[in-house]
């Protein structure tokens, strides 16, 4: 038979030939990112484009703000203090924003918070034009922006299952993540160019333009009113969301696995020392910061297979273990290219974890609880990395940079395994039979 492009396949009692090229093409097709939600839902397209532009502009501002603070104060502490200023609004208004998203019309909340962000961003631009820009105003704007973002994000995330079909949620999550990763790569690069060439005023102006454009798009969404079972925002309503999350072990595991992974293995704060003092390649520091985003983007672009996975809890556990293992191996890197490669693998693994956690949330949480649970998720997403950076810094100061990175990876693997053993229901989770997933699927089909 020589080099003929055929393969012998045994299927029960039937034997037939399948062209290898056709088989390979079919397998590659399963990897391609699924564009079905983009083609089928006008409101998903609006959410995706608005979110992408908003995130891109925000990443430009993310570069400009610490640069301006450092230029005005000459203090690294003054730059880091912005995190302290924003953490309380993030916690308080993240939970309240989730409760609010479950009670009010979500398009209205998106537009109202968008308008607030327009005013805040305009103040940042105006401050740069003063003869002596005011540092206190930057902190005030940072705190106000944290409030507006905390109120807005739960509504935006809670809308996703309403604008696509139930079976399209994995593809919709992958597409949303892909556009965020593009913004994560392009935004800081654009911000750096603007800050270095024409100044922070132009950088903040680009952020302002992105917010205006996104808010105008949000105004074009359809109406998404709360159902009859909605609860007015209150401490009792917030507590109800927390109790619901803790009673459902599968949801609790999605939060805990991610927080364990981020708290124990978050290496970003060590990148400057790792590139400069350990690997002796300070000029390539930027590639360390980009590596995880590149890996995540590659995972998103080949995410077509995700819709065929039903044991999604198992996928989250294995992906987070992969994240920790890759970070630990990167810490042993003999050169910077080895480190970049494994940090990219870590980013891809983290993206897989994000994808399946989001699918579980969007396919199983009732609409009347979705905002509050999105608020809780936002806290876990934010606090885990913040705690992880503190842990990495302390361990590096007490030992070495390599020890901090490698030990974090090892502890992450051990912590995730322990968490999955403790919450066995998560490992056994199956989207085809889980009672919450079945209920939501039936409700969507009936609607």
UniProtKB/TrEMBL annotation:
Record-annotated membrane-spanning stretches: 46-65, 77-97, 109-129, 200-219, 255-275, 287-306, 313-330
Database matches in Pfam families: MFS_3
Protein source organism: Kribbella pratensis
Localization of this protein: Cell inner membrane
Major site of localization recorded for this protein: membrane
UniProt-recorded name of the protein: MFS family arabinose efflux permease
Record's keyword terms, sorted: Cell membrane, Membrane, Transmembrane, Transmembrane helix, Transport
Residues in Major facilitator superfamily (MFS) profile domain copies: 242-447
InterPro entries: MFS_dom, MFS_trans_sf, TM_effector
Keyword Transport: yes
Membrane topology note: Multi-pass membrane protein
């Amino acid at each position: 038979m020589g080099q003929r492009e055929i393969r012998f396949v045994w299927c029960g009692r039937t034997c037939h030939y399948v062209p290898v090229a056709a088989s390979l093409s079919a397998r590659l097709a399963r990897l391609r990112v699924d564009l079905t939600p983009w083609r089928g839902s006008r409101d998903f397209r609006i959410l995706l484009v608005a979110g992408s532009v908003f995130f891109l502009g925000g990443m430009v501002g993310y570069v400009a703000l610490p640069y301006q603070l450092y230029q005005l104060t000459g203090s690294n502490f003054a730059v880091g203090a912005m995190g302290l200023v924003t953490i309380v609004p993030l916690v308080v208004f993240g939970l309240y924003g989730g409760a609010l998203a479950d009670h009010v019309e979500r398009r209205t909340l998106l537009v109202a918070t968008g308008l607030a962000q327009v005013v805040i961003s305009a103040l940042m631009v105006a401050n740069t034009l003063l003869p002596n820009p005011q540092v206190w105003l930057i902190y005030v704007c940072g705190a106000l922006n944290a409030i507006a973002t905390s109120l807005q994000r739960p509504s935006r995330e809670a809308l996703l299952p309403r604008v696509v079909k139930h079976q399209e949620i994995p593809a919709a999550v992958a597409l949303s993540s892909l556009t965020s990763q593009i913004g994560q790569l392009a935004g800081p690069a654009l911000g750096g160019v603007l800050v270095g060439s024409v100044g922070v005023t132009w950088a903040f102006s680009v952020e302002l333009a992105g917010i205006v454009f996104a808010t105008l798009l949000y105004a074009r969404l359809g109406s998404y009113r709360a159902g009859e079972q909605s609860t007015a925002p209150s401490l009792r309503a917030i507590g109800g969301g927390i109790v619901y999350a803790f009673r459902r072990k599968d949801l609790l595991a999605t939060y805990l696995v991610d927080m364990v992974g981020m708290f124990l293995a978050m290496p970003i704060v060590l990148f400057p020392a790792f590139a400069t003092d350990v690997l002796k390649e300070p000029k390539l520091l930027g590639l360390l910061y980009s590596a995880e985003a590149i890996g995540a983007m590659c995972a998103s672009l080949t995410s077509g297979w995700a819709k065929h996975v039903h044991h999604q809890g198992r996928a989250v556990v294995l992906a987070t273990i992969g994240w920790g293992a890759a970070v630990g191996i990167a810490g042993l890197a003999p050169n910077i290219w080895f480190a970049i490669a494994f940090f990219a693998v870590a980013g891809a693994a983290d993206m897989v974890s994000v994808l399946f956690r989001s699918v579980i949330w969007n396919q199983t949480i009732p609409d009347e609880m979705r905002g509050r649970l999105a608020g809780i998720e936002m806290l876990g997403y934010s606090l885990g990395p913040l705690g992880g950076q503190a842990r990495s810094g302390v361990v590096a100061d007490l030992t070495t940079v390599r020890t901090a990175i490698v030990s974090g990876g090892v502890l992450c693997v051990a912590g995730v395994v322990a968490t999955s053993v403790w919450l066995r229901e998560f490992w056994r989770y199956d989207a085809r039979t889980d009672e919450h997933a079945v209920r939501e699927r039936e409700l969507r089909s009936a609607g």
